[in-house]
Structures are given as C-alpha cells and as structure tokens.
C-alpha cells in the first residue's frame, strides 16, 4: 500500500505491465518513440547547422535542445537563472556537499517512462521516496484536529480512514469509469481510452474536484470529505486542489502518477546538467564529442530573453539581457507561459489571439518548501515506552501539512523537509523569512512530537523556496480550473502548425504548463518532444516511417475537441 487513502484498485495480477503516462488526452507512446533505433527524425542536409532558439533551460528546454542537436541543428539556449528550472537541487552552507534539498521536483513515478529514458541515458540512479505509508517508509503519523495516529500500514489507522479509502474507490469507479480506463491504459487500448475519455471530458470539464466528491453518494459525509482533503492519496492531502478541475485529478490517478515514487540520488538537477554536458554517440553533422555546452560560448547558455518579435520572412527575433539580437527560422519557448505577459516584451503577432487568451487564463499553483540539515536520521530511534519510531513522515492539518524525512544511511547526516505546502497553505508562509518559517514549523511539530527535540539535531541554516515569489516562475505548476480544457488543448496542440496561418508559425510552446500532466516532469519531456517534431517538420524534415512522431499520428489520436459555442 503506497498511500494513506489508496488509489482505486489494488491489482491482484502483479505481472501486469506498469501504466505509463500514455494519455488519456493524447495516447501516444513517447517511450516507444524514444527507444526506436530509427531515432526521432532527420532534416535535409541543407538545413544542418541552422540555429534554433530554445528559450528556457529547464528540463523541457534542455531535452529539446539535446534532441535538436542530435539532428544536426544548432540550438541556442537562453536561460535567465540557472540550468534546471524547477529541477533545482541546493546544498546547505557549511555542510557536506552531498547533503542536498530538492526545492522543486523531488519524486517521480515509474509511469514517467519518457523521463526515465533520460534518467537512464545520463546514468543517474533512483531510490524509493518516503511518501506516507509507502512500503519503504518506516512509519507515518496522521495528525488531525489535535489527534495523532501512528501507522506502518493503513491497517494501523482507525476504521474511518479505510472508510474514506473505500469511498474514494467507489467515487472513481462510479463517476469516472476508473476500472475500465485503468484496464484500457494498461493494455494501451487507444480506441477504448478515447471512447471513455471523450465522454468524461464533455461531462466533467465544468466540474471541480470538490464538486465531484460531493456528487458521489460515497462522499455524502462532510467528515469523510474533510479527512480525504487532509490526507488524500499518494503524496498526501489534496484539498488545495479542491477548486481545480476534476479532469486534472483523473489524469493523475489514471496514469498512477502519484504512486510508487522514486527520488534521484544526488538530486534531480543533475539530469538537465548532465544532458547539457553529454556527448551523444549518434549525432548528425556535428563532430563526435559535441555537446550542448560546447556549442555555447564558455559552455554557458545565453542570458534572459527580454524581447520576442516577428520579422520579415516570418522569422523569430530574440533580444537578450546583454542586448544581443538574433533572428531564427524557428524557436521553442519552454519557460513559464506567464513570462510572455510580463518579463518579455512580445509582439501580439507571435501567437493567434486564442492562444494568447489561453496563456492569460493559465492557472498556477503556489508551492513552498523548507528543509533543514540534521546530524543523523534520529527519527529511527525507538521510543522506550511505545517501541515506535520517535518521529515519522507526517501529515497534519497544522501549518506544516507535510513533513518528509530523508536519509542516506543511519550514520550519515540527513535532511528533513519540515514543510511542503501548496496554494493558500503556501501563501501563509510567503511573508516569513526562512528562519521565521522554521520556528513556526518546529513549534507545530513539537506539538505532535513533544518528546523529540528536533532543534538539537539541526546542523545548518534552513533553505526555503516559495515558487510564487520566484521572478522567473511566478508559481510552481499549472493546474486547470473548471472550463479550462479548451485553453489547455490550444496550448498542447500548438506544435501542429500546419493548421496555423503562415505568419503565426515558427515559434513552438513547450514545457510543464503546456502539458496535460502539469506538475510532473514527464509532461515537460513530452511537450519538448512535440516541439522537436514541430521544428523538424517546420524546417522540412521528417521521421522514419517505422517510427512515426507525435505529429505524424496526430489526426488519429488528437485530444477531444469541445465545441466553442
């Protein structure tokens, strides 16, 4: 059991293939596309060496740049801050450099198979992440309304938690055809996936997560809805998502995105950093030993983009913070889309007006974290009276909400994520400094663990982030509100530019908030691959017939199109 309130179905057949983030909106096998020996495609030799602007050096931008380079193009990466984006790993001043904190993405499901392709490619290792009641999590404490419950499995919790789990299972099956969709996705039965999802999109696009629960007879009890919101499933409480579209939540449960998480040993930022330095074995046009770093002056990306506009011949002209102006036949924009509304001066002609509307309507979730380094994983000590762990992975309705305990062995320094929160819970921390946040968190945890002196184990200053306050992000990740499906479809399908007027082509949107699976690194990878296909096609290239790309099969699996009138 991997969650406090588990996902809907426990599968008896352990030999079933793992679900991938294979849909349901666009059921294309990105993992198969990446694994095929024919590669992702090619461009005419006359186009080799053509510069393509890649704006944003997060995971999506670096993946896109890496694949464009392999095709013989010359990606020019622009990055306002540092390579990695929301894959941000930081150290603690004065502590062992191997002691790190994940300020952004920190846990990844096995269903992220396109992401896993790149993790394997650069030789990174993963290990289980200590989510509540995960098999490798020693213990979990659920603390609600001043009452704490210690558990090593869900069976250790009071009956009401199992009742809530059963209600969630029933709610999903009755309201969202969970079992049928789960089976279709495991079998990669595209016609059946599309049939089920088309009906659900039409039925549920205007419904909130909370409204979906309320409409279920299984959740008629407010107490059950309240408990579910506070302890949720997979990673913990989901009440901060209650105002969001239920379609967003269904994507998570259908793809098992919140299950069986693993962390990247040494930190997730290593992934884009290693891709930046990697010298592909198979590469067109460029000499063997070429890397993205070697294609850039001093091995560094160009600075922040300050202006984007169209020039003669439907070219994209980019001005950066150093005042350098370059013009490109094609560009990929992977940064947070709100940057196009504020930090970057843009021509209206860059995108069709409907796409500008979708960008403006993008809804971002706030998110905050605070980590402290400690001398050792003291939480594994046993209480002499109870025989239990003295401290546990903690879910609570107090200010901290979620507390995670991260160690690398019993005799080594360790890290505590004292608090990980979203939305309104994140905004409560915004005015406070890192030390002020830590004091509030230690007070809350002290009320749950009165016999544990966490402070005496702390060996360095806290590190914190509030993504809504980061100038190049302004939020953690996209989460659609009810009625936003049409907007998301416009953004995701933007890479199919044959449908656009000629004067609206050449710049491609990609990144986490363009994807259907926002908040998961897999979405950043998938949209990067869409954009790579788009650039290749725009420059006259094509895929091998044996390995059709996402644009080649688009008409067969295009996302549901809802009427506008």
Average of the residue pLDDT scores: 94
Strand order of the largest sheet: 7-6-16-17-18-15-19
* Largest sheet report: 7 strands, mixed
Poorly predicted ranges (pLDDT <50, ≥5 residues)?
1-16
Discrete helix count: 16
How would you describe the shape?
globular
Work out the radius of gyration: 24 Å
Distance between the termini: 45 Å
Strand element count:
21
Structure characterization notes:
It is built from 16 helices and 21 strands. The strands form six sheets. It has a seven-stranded mixed β-sheet with strand order 7-6-16-17-18-15-19, sandwiched between helices. A four-stranded parallel β-sheet has the order 2-1-12-21, covered by helices on one side. Mean pLDDT is 94; it is low at 1-16. Helix 11 crosses helix 14 (485-492). The chain is of the alpha/beta class and 565 residues long. It has helices at residues 30-35, 59-70, 113-121, 159-176, 178-186, 190-204, 209-214, 222-231, 246-254, 270-277, 353-361, 423-427, 434-448, 485-492, 521-538, 554-557, and strands spanning 51-55, 74-78, 89-91, 100-102, 126-128, 140-144, 147-151, 262-264, 305-311, 315-320, 325-328, 331-333, 345-346, 364-365, 367-374, 393-396, 402-406, 414-422, 463-466, 477-478, 507-509. It starts with 29 loop residues before the first helix and ends in an 8-residue tail after the last helix.
